[in-house]
Amino acid sequence: MAMIPSDRIEANRLDRDIAQRCRGGEAGAFEELYKRFGSRLYTVAYRMTGSAADAEDLVQDIFLQVYRRLDTYRGDAALGTWLHRIAVNACLDFVRSKQGRRRRVTDTGEDLDALEAPAAGPWRAGAALDRMELERAIAQLPPSYRRAFLLHDVEGLEHHEIGETLGIAEGTSKSLLFKARMRLRVLLRGRPGER
Amino acid sequence: MERHTSADPACGRFAALIHDRVDGALDAGAQQELDAHLASCAACRELLSDLDAIKRTAVDIPDLTPRSEVWTSLSARLAAEAAARPRPFWTGARVALAMAATLVVAVTSSVWLLRAPAPAAPADASAGAATEVIQSGGNLVQDVDEHLRIADEHYVKAIAGLEQVVKSGEGALDPALAATLQKNLGVIDQAITESREAIKTQPNSQLAQTSLFEALRQKVSLLEDTVALINVMRKGDQAGAAKILGGLSKS
Amino acid sequence: MNSTHRFLAFVAAAAVLAAAPASAASLYSTAAGPLGWDGEPQQTEKFSKTLPLPKGGSLDLSNISGDIVITGGAGDQVVIDAVKRGKSTEDLKLVQIEVASTATRVEVRTQYPRERRNVNVSVDYTVSVPRAAGVTVRTVSGNLNLATIDGELMADSVSGDVNVKAASRLESARSVSGTVTVASAASDGDISFASVSGDVKLSQVKARGIDASSVSGGVTLADVTCGRAKAKSVSGDIVFGGPLAKGGRYSLQSHSGNVTVLADGKTGFEVSAGTFSGEISSDLKIVSAFGGEPPADSPPGRHRGPGQRVRGSFGDGGAFLELNSFSGDVKIVTRPAELRK
């Protein structure tokens, strides 16, 4: 959804406003920041680590980093984008660590199993794709497909970053993404050849 | 018209291009090639349309909510962090220096304890934590000297690093301001020199030691603020320069 | 409407705007002003804007070059008058005064273009705010003069002086190469004052805690009332005068400057004074806390020698004074005349 210029200016101003109030030590400003972005960054951490417990620890570390580095935020990028980058980097550091390495994927993708897919899927021809149907379909993906898909198409990570996160090669990440999408399509549309 | 499905090997090559197209990762040549194919292949057109829709819809997938215990824990950690800081703007370098400073404060207050039976309250909250560090280290007097030496090294190193940065960036500052800052760094240098001389002649003088570390701390502080100001001026962010003032000139 | 009609309407509108003090409108007028310091004619451009600011609201003003005067008064409006000064009208146009407002805050920023560096334009501001408004003001090169402000006040300059008078919720007043002069200010909490090469002079300041520092300037806290004070300088003198709170802690320190406390002799205090190569003297009799140099009782008078230390108390020892200099003298005096050198 493209923002019209006045929306963007307003959003920018709100970003700088909250950043400034946090810097100024205004009571409750940081809580406001957390309310606004806490779930987002927790979700990034969850998707990158695959663990709710690790994500809970990481999201706190991330916000502490934000607290320490707020004076470097100058307001030219959107605050959400800036925070997302801090979160991704913090998670990458984590997955590189000894503790984080436990969270890497072990499977690198199975072949598409047409038999598991429904004959006709919930996504009818000519209709819009329902988001909840998509979520259900994502839940049915094998873990490696699901994580590659979420990290790329939802979180916007690059393949080399996904590779690092999951402990796989960049090319494998790309391959997992493609397979994930194809599988989602089958789950949503139904088995090929039957359509 | 013959229908291909995208499982058709003839379309296999194009399937990869279609994925790249969805990611906006196709160069002009591949774009043209794909367009030419799409013109005559309904199956591939459907695939592209489906994958586009999947990606577009995926972006709206809602986030997970962390438990409220996460905020409870985080806010406690933030409060502790804020309490330990004397000022709001801390760069990474300062965290390391805080260690040195904390050592010095703890050391000088424990030196008090050695020499003065009268209670000497710690100068600030951080001393409390660091005192534990010192006291757990065995012979107190030996530790004191060692810790002072280490702290001195930390400071000298930090100062050297900062001076480099200042040297290379000074051009960004107004000449009169740069001159004022240099002059005041000189005043602090004088204090450092005098303190070191004093320590040489009276190694046990707690006052000389305190003087030295106070001056080192002030030098680091002024250098860091100068660096911050340079960085901001350099980027032409003059309004940001005004904001830096929040940390500047607070020794 | 035809073009003549439109032109006349424009002129009429401009005349109306020019005549009346602008309430919600802004007004620019450019003039070839007086000669600048180098004898070259200066261009000036005036700017005015008035905005409502209800109770509890605040003003946030950021400037780069130019003096700022902010005065609190009656009413519920922020009235901004600014004068841009520069070499050419093109230069003046490059610098924008941006005013933004929300229900509770008015933000004023002097915006210079990012690309062009040496835009030699200064903007002087004269602003009046509701007395209860909070004010945050910063400039890089320019003096700040702030008076009768009852909201939270933070004032920073880099190369200018900061003068504050009658501020009842002062938080900080700082400069780098200018002096900081504050008369009649208060805070429920702590106030921070600082300069690098300028003096810090406070008189009649009441706060819970005061932090005042300079590097080469002196720090004078005359008639301050606080429970905690920390005043430091490297080469400047420190002077402290004011009622000492029972249980208060006052830490005054300089490297080569003198440290002087004006005590009224009525409140007791504990003192820890030290100087490496200066003198320690006291008009009041300090009873030494323990043996060591100098002798058990430190009679009033002068003590000289390297590694001078006095640890003791006067009277009931309620407050705690920590007075240190490296090469300067430490003095406790009872007569204000002593403060003048």
Question: Concise description?
Answer:
Chain A is mainly alpha-helical and 195 residues long. Helices cover 66% and strands 0% of the residues of chain A.
Structure description:
Chain A has helices at residues 5-23, 29-49, 52-69, 79-96, 98-101, 131-139, 143-154, 159-166, 170-189. Chain A is globular. With 195 residues, chain A is mostly helical. Chain A has two domains: 5-101, RNA polymerase sigma factor, region 2, helix turn helix motif (Rna Polymerase Sigma Factor, Chain: A, Orthogonal Bundle), CATH 1.10.1740.10; 114-189, Orthogonal Bundle (Arc Repressor Mutant, subunit A), CATH 1.10.10. Chain B has two domains: 9-58; 93-244, no CATH class. Chain B contains ten helices and no strands. Chain C is mainly β and 341 residues long. Chain C has a domain at 23-134. Chain C has two helices and 27 strands. Chain C is elongated, with a radius of gyration of 26 Å. The interface between B and C is large, with 43 and 53 residues.
Whole-number count of domains of chain B? 2
Record field, number of beta strands of chain B:
0
Contiguous runs where pLDDT drops below 50 for at least 5 residues of chain C: 1-29, 290-299
Largest sheet of chain B: none
Number of helices of chain C: 2
Order of helices and strands of chain C: HEEEEEHEEEEEEEEEEEEEEEEEEEEEE
Q: How far is it from the N-terminal to the C-terminal residue of chain B, by CA? A: 81 Å
Secondary-structure element sequence of chain B? HHHHHHHHHH
The SS-based structural class of chain C is mainly beta
Secondary structure topology:
The complex is a heterotrimer of chains A (195), B (251) and C (341).
Chain A: H1 5-23, H2 29-49, H3 52-69, H4 79-96, H5 98-101, H6 131-139, H7 143-154, H8 159-166, H9 170-189
Chain B: H1 9-22, H2 28-38, H3 42-58, H4 68-84, H5 92-115, H6 125-135, H7 140-169, H8 175-201, H9 206-234, H10 238-244
Chain C: H1 3-19, E1 27-35, E2 41-52, E3 58-65, E4 68-73, E5 77-86, H2 89-94, E6 96-101, E7 105-111, E8 122-130, E9 134-141, E10 144-157, E11 162-174, E12 180-186, E13 190-194, E14 200-206, E15 209-213, E16 219-233, E17 238-241, E18 244-254, E19 259-262, E20 269-275, E21 279-282, E22 286-288, E23 297-298, E24 301-304, E25 308-314, E26 319-325, E27 330-333
Parallel strand pairs in C: 3-7, 3-9, 4-8, 4-10, 9-10, 10-11, 11-12, 11-13, 12-14, 13-15, 14-16, 15-16, 16-17, 16-18, 17-19, 18-26, 19-27, 20-26, 21-27
Antiparallel strand pairs in C: 1-2, 2-5, 5-8, 6-7, 20-25, 21-24, 22-23, 22-25
